[in-house]
Structure formats: C-alpha cells, structure tokens
C-alpha cells in the first residue's frame, strides 16, 4: 500500500495525541450525563474506538450505517439508513462520531433524524473537517483536525473499501484514483 501514497497528512502519534485531548474534553463536558456514543460506520470505527478509550466516564456505544447516493468521492445529500441503532436514544445525551465532514449533507440529515427520536441532547464529533466544500450549516462541537480539500484515506477512511487499516491519514497518488 505504501507505494500508492503521495503524502502523509497526519501521522499516527499526532492522531493519538489529539484524540487524547478530545477524550479529555468530552470527559469534562459529559460528567454526570447519560452518554451514548454513536459511531457512523464504517469510516469512524478506528476513531470511535480510540476516542472511547480516552473518555473516562460510563458510556454506551451504538452503530449506524448510512449511505449517501452518489459517486464514491461525491456526496449527494440523499441519505439512506443501511443499519439503524440497536437501542433507543430517548432521554440520552448523544454524541455522533464521524470520520470526516465534507459537504455536511450526510451529517445534517443524521442530526435531524436522531433529534426526532427524543434524545436529551445531540452533539457532533468529527476527526476531520473539510470546511471548503461545506454546503449546509451543520454545527460541529468537537473537531480533531481541519484539512484542505483533498480526498484522504487511512485510519478508517477508504477508497473503494481499501486503505482503512493505515494507521495515519494520507493522500493517494493521482494514478490510484483512475
Ligand atoms: P458529506 O459530504 O456528506 O460526506 O459531509 C461525508 C462522507 O463522505 C465521505 N468522504 C470521504 N471519505 N475520504 C474518504 O475516505 C475523504 O476525503 C472524504 N470526504 C468525504 C465519508 O464517507 C463521509 O462520511
Ligand atoms: Mg467512505
């Protein structure tokens, strides 16, 4: 896989250091609350796992899988739920954990959908933020890193389902996408 990589944007130790800080911040903010961490599959799975290890509170974890209609690198804003939560979030303090917010269309749909289920609160945590391509006003409460408008892979993020297992965030060589 190394031969496909053009540039590493965020190294492993940088990722882990920032995730530790986010975990500490979330620990302070959610003290005494009934926290449910919702992982958006599949991209956020590595991030959610490392983040939760740094949250020093009782919490539960649930998973949701959504797909946005469109090509593999472009979001369309039309979202389909492929896997719904296992448990009710009524009266819970919900923290949605995402890998990346790009146009924001997927997340704004998800936030509205979850808010309609009667939770006490809904907040959003993303590892990566690509503000340049935002198409909707979605409030992000916790951001790991803000990155330029490039398609990135690694640490959960894929291109055609590959590269998720790289322990860092990187950009692939142009010929790989063809
Ligand atoms: P929107 O545009 O709705 O998109 O905010 C969010 C989803 O789009 C995918 N996405 C990416 N996936 N590298 C990826 O591997 C990227 O650079 C990238 N940009 C957007 C991702 O699935 C995210 O949940
Ligand atoms: Mg993806």
Automatic annotation (TrEMBL):
It is found in: Cytoplasm. Its cofactor is Mg(2+). Residues 13-159 form the Phosphoribosyltransferase domain. Keywords: Cytoplasm, Glycosyltransferase, Magnesium, Metal-binding, Nucleotide-binding, Purine salvage, Transferase. It is an enzyme of class 2 (transferase). Belongs to the purine/pyrimidine phosphoribosyltransferase family. Purine salvage pathway enzyme that catalyzes the transfer of the ribosyl-5-phosphate group from 5-phospho-alpha-D-ribose 1-diphosphate (PRPP) to the N9 position of the 6-oxopurines hypoxanthine and guanine to form the corresponding ribonucleotides IMP (inosine 5'-monophosphate) and GMP (guanosine 5'-monophosphate), with the release of PPi. Its main location: cytoplasm. This is Hypoxanthine phosphoribosyltransferase. GO terms for cellular component: cytosol. It catalyses: IMP + diphosphate = hypoxanthine + 5-phospho-alpha-D-ribose 1-diphosphate; GMP + diphosphate = guanine + 5-phospho-alpha-D-ribose 1-diphosphate. It comes from the Bacteria. One of its GO terms (biological process) is IMP salvage. Its EC number is 2.4.2.8. GO terms for molecular function: guanine phosphoribosyltransferase activity; hypoxanthine phosphoribosyltransferase activity; magnesium ion binding; nucleotide binding. Pfam families: Pribosyltran. Pathway: Purine metabolism; GMP biosynthesis via salvage pathway; GMP from guanine: step 1/1; Purine metabolism; IMP biosynthesis via salvage pathway; IMP from hypoxanthine: step 1/1.
């Amino acid at each position: 896989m190394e031969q496909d990589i053009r540039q590493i944007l965020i190294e492993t130790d940088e990722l882990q250091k920032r995730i530790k800080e986010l975990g500490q911040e979330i620990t302070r903010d959610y003290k005494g609350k009934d926290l449910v961490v919702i992982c958006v599959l599949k991209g956020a799975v590595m991030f959610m796992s490392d983040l939760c290890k740094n949250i020093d509170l009782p919490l539960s974890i649930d998973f949701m899988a959504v797909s946005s209609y469109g090509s593999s690198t472009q979001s369309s804003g039309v979202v389909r739920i492929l896997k719904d939560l296992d448990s009710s979030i009524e009266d819970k303090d919900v923290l949605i954990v995402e890998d990346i917010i790009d146009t924001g269309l997927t997340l704004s749909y998800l936030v509205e959908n979850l808010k309609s289920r009667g939770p006490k609160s809904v907040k959003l945590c993303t590892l990566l933020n690509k503000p340049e391509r935002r198409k909707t006003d979605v409030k992000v409460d916790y951001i790991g890193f803000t990155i330029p408008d490039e398609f990135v892979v690694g640490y959960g993020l894929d291109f055609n389902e590959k590269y998720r297992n790289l322990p860092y965030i990187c950009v692939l060589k142009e010929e790989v996408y063809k």
